[in-house]
Amino acid sequence: MVAKSRNMARKMMSELPKCPSGIQGLDEVTFGGLPKGRPTLVCGSAGCGKTLLAMEFLCRGAVKYHEPGVFMAFEEREEDLRENFASLGFDLASLVKHKKLVIDYVYIERSEIEETGEYNLEGLFVRLASAIDSIGAKRVVLDTIEALFSGFSNETILRAELRRLFRWLKDRGVTAVVTGEKGHTLLTKHGLEEYVADCVIFLDHRVTAQIATRRLKIVKYRGSKHGTNEFPFLIDTNGISVFPTTSLLLSRNVSSERISSGIKSLDEMFGDKGYYRGSTILVSGSAGSGKTSFGAQFVDSVCRNGQRALYFAFEESEGQLSRNMKSISINLKHWIDKGRLKIVANRATLCGLEMHLVMAHNAVREFKPAIVIIDPITTLTGAGIEDEAKLMIARLLDFLKNNDITVLATDLTIVGENGEATEIGISSLCDTWIKLSMETQGHGRMRRITIIKSRGMEHGLETKDLLITDNGLEIKDIPGSRENCT
Amino acid sequence: MKKVNYRLRLYVAGNTPKSLEAFANLRKICGDYLEGQYSIDVVDLLKNPKLAKGDQIVAIPTLVRRLPPPLKKIIGDLSDKEKVLVGLDIIDRGPDD
After folding, report:
1. Contact B18/A130, CB-based, under 8 Å?
2. Quick one: DSSP state of residue A59?
């Protein structure tokens, strides 16, 4: 009997219905969304993005999932909300007009209210019920209900009414987001977490090493698994984007399909076939060893096959890159015009690392490339603290891998440094590692190429010459080396 | 004393004992202090929920002094006569209030 009820409890837990928020990334870290038909508390200090998260939850719900919503605002007037959200691309007025959204501004000014004897907050319930019924709302936001504490002096009544309100929301079966300001010792100033038992999300906005980052943490989610990490998030013209720690999905389909590197003689070194699709290739080398050309050659080959390539350039602008590659007969501009190549050029120090990664995330999602070039991946460390940088890069690479995107990342090694230690130790995250080097030989310097590792495929072990010619890259045996190697 | 016309509105939600009590208290106070210069209308929000937004009603019962201006609100069962009189500006605020 006990076992049976335990089984039932487990079954109920695994089937906890969720309400997709529609917010980029949030549904991934919550494994499906917020608890359906229950209240969720979103807390954090001023300016952390609570109101935005709450409003976006309603807007996405109304547009994407056909669930109308009620926004009960205790702090901002309807006009102000409309103006603020217009800049983020949300047309609240139109949603209101089409009966997908109701905004009710609740104004409470203690100095204008005299209290005599007992009262309750039935007026609030009536307003909420009337707003919900007017459009058949499935979602409700109370932002922030803590304003009631400054509006009424009788805390005993207030707390009893809040308890009643949350029970009432549950009974109505609406999925609610309740916001609260961060308190000193409690999650919220007035301990709202006491009433919202199901799901608590904490937002944080902090500055480390002069780089501001926003983070989201799921403090609790009863009856559901959830990521316990802090997830960086971004507020841009698309609203909120949460960057999930996409741990490498072990269940993903591993491709045995190959993709040409764009250099015939290099493909030959990989058993005549090229890279694995969806693998990560690291090209490391000192300055001037031909890393960027290497990437451009790959781009050219992919575009020729009618697929798309996304190029993150952290050191050169789009114009510079196209001009330079023209000298080895690679016409990047042509592919850009054809819509097969997109170059995203940014200084790494422009913004925080999370911001870069979220932007990368969004660019990938929009452009849907077959390959991504990150040139060079090492500059990203300058945009964050080293350990964090490594973690973030791992997240990005895993995300790309999960989407079956082949990545070629370049990495600058400083001459004289220990050969196999790439600057941030990302080589272990890569499936194939190609090292380019410059060697002084006689009166000139020669470019050399070595495949240090390539998981799961046969590959040549010898070091070869890399020639950058007017017609692109070429790999040749080092004269006289055959005999030595074999 | 100048004659002022008081227009009062009492917001309730259904015929609960609290709202009946508030109404009775209000009638008594008005009868005692505002003889012939007041009118009271009672709004039941369960019947007219949309009216709650207009006067920014949150608590029930709420007494609103619509005239003379400025608008005044008193919430609760109106059991404290002194506070009601002060709240409606019928008598002056005491020195320690």
Report:
1. no
2. H
Do B10 and B51 form a contact (C-beta atoms < 8 A)?
no
Bridge partners (DSSP) of residue B74 are A114, B63
Give the DSSP letter of residue A146.
T
Q: What is the pTM of this model?
A: 0.71
Task: Give me the domain span that covers residue A39.
Answer: 9-242
Please state, in angstroms and rounded to a whole number, the distance separating the CA atoms of residues A229 and A219. 9
| DSSP character at residue A24 | B
Same domain (yes/no): A79, A119: yes
Domains and their CATH numbers in chain B: 6-87 (3.40.30.10)
Encode pLDDT of B59-86 as tens digits.
999 999 998 888 899 999 999 888 899 8
- Structural contact between residues A208 and A21, judged by C-beta atoms closer than 8 angstroms: no
Rounded alpha-carbon distances, angstroms, from residue A122 to A38, B16, B61, B73: 20, 11, 8, 16
Judge contact between B30 and B8, C-beta under 8 A.
Answer: yes
Asked whether residue A344 falls in the same domain as residue A206, the answer is no
Separation between Cα atoms, residue B17 and residue B22, nearest integer Å: 9
Residue A343 counted as domain residue = yes
pLDDT over 90 (residue A289): no
| A316 and A189 assigned to the same domain | no
Per CB distance under 8 Å, which residues of B are interface residues toward A? 11, 13, 18, 22, 45-46, 49-50, 52-53, 56-62, 71-80, 83-84, 86-87
DSSP A25: T
* CATH assignment of the domain containing A480: 3.40.50.300
Say how many CA atoms lie within 13 Å of A249 toward its Cβ.
14
Between A73 and A349, the higher pLDDT residue: A73
Token output for A284? 């490391």
Q: Which two three-digit tokens encode residue A444?
A: 């000139």
The total number of structural domains that make up chain A: 2
The conformation of residue A446, written as its DSSP 8-state character, comes to E
Encoded tokens for A273: 């076939």
CA pair distance A431, A362, nearest whole angstrom: 24
Same domain, A287 and A227: no
Taking an 8 Å Cβ-Cβ cutoff, which residues of chain A contact chain B?
A: 104, 106-108, 112-127, 129-130, 148, 151-152
Q: What is the ipTM of this complex?
A: 0.90
* Per-residue tokens: A64: 């994407």
